[in-house]
Specification:
CATH architecture of the largest domain: 3-Layer(aba) Sandwich
CATH class of the largest domain: Alpha Beta
Structural class: alpha/beta
Number of helices: 21
Strand content: 5-15%
Shape: globular
Number of domains: 2
CATH topology of the largest domain: D-Maltodextrin-Binding Protein, domain 2
Amino acid sequence: MRSNRFAVMRGTALATGLLIALAGCGGDSDDKGGDSGGQTLKGVTIEVAAVWTGAEGAGFKKVLDAFSKKTGATTRLTPTGDNTATFLQTKIQGGAPPDVAMLPQQGVIAEFAKKGWIKELGPEVQAAAKQNFSKVWQDFGTADGKMYGLYFKAGNKSLVWYRTKAFQDAGVQPPADWAGFVKTVQTLSDAGSTPLAIAGGDGWTLTDWFENVYASQAGVEKYRQLSKHEIKWTDPSVKQALKTLAEIWSKPNYMAGGAAGANSLLMDKAVTDVFGSEPKAAMLSGADVVSANISETKSKVGTDALTFPFPKTGAKPPLVGAGDAAVMLKDNKGSQEFMKFLATPEAAAAWAKAGGYISPNKALDLSNYPDDVQRASAKAVIDAGDDFLFDMSDLYPAAFGGTKGAGEWKRLQDFLKNPSSVDATAAGLESDATKALKS
């Protein structure tokens, strides 16, 4: 994500129909407003740009509809495509930016703030953020001491989803650590089940693998140092994480389609390969958002599909995640009111009930989530508080951490093809990161 890498479904057939519907979504002028003063924004149209399509787009539509009913405003969702930063830059330079955009990369907030492309949040929005969100989420939305972003969507990326029957048939239990994970994978393979669907065709999924291994193995402090490029990507800790990944990635028989298949597999297809009617693998590493896509198969989350925390490679298990922040490209009444609404548990509940979503809003009652799996995942994010680790690739400029066919995505795809190339991969990552930070 963004490229938000909790955004699993991109460009599906469902998305096409959904976007047509979303183009006109919003308040009916005859609606009676909610309890915030009625139709305070009647006649106002608010354009919101976001990457979400498919199941996620449908979830966000519920938020837009709730805002329209409450205020009388008409909302228009503009799809950004995978490269949100590039899309918005083009709109801004063309003099037609949306009112609000959802940024799936924390690093882009700092980039856009520096260029003067986004507006500081108003005092009421900031007050609501301080009341309902942990300090770490406020900090993620802050650049140069000013709050520009309100994190509306969070994600727990330290999860492995598995098909219950595959584990039952092989007689295995969810592992707690990396050694147990490697053993589980081997046992599944020995039992005749392909263990993993690795969606290497979406480079962001591979960054998630790396970050989870690195966070636990190198520790929180090293993780934060590498996130800020305070240590180099050629650091021994990076190479050790790559070697650990190679314990799995170097075994083509562990992956659906082998190494070549894994490098072309997209996340939506990986979900189907694990949970569809004709499964081809037993599990996949994926954020909580996968639940919405599993629901589109014949499997049921909570029974057929379960999760376990990403196995720890060090003393503590990782808690890595990401998020989408709402930012204002236009400072007007409609934008400010929409941002205020997004800061409320009411807005979060509108999507939470639909599934495939986690809110960083600690005021949201967990009962709004549709099943125990999603409640547990959401609770883990909230309980992490200020120890929550943001997706490292999203903390870098998009040229390194969020561009298809370039930077970290491409380097890890190449590493998946050749897991023996530890030194060359580390050197390439360092070169790309340095270049992106200088541009």
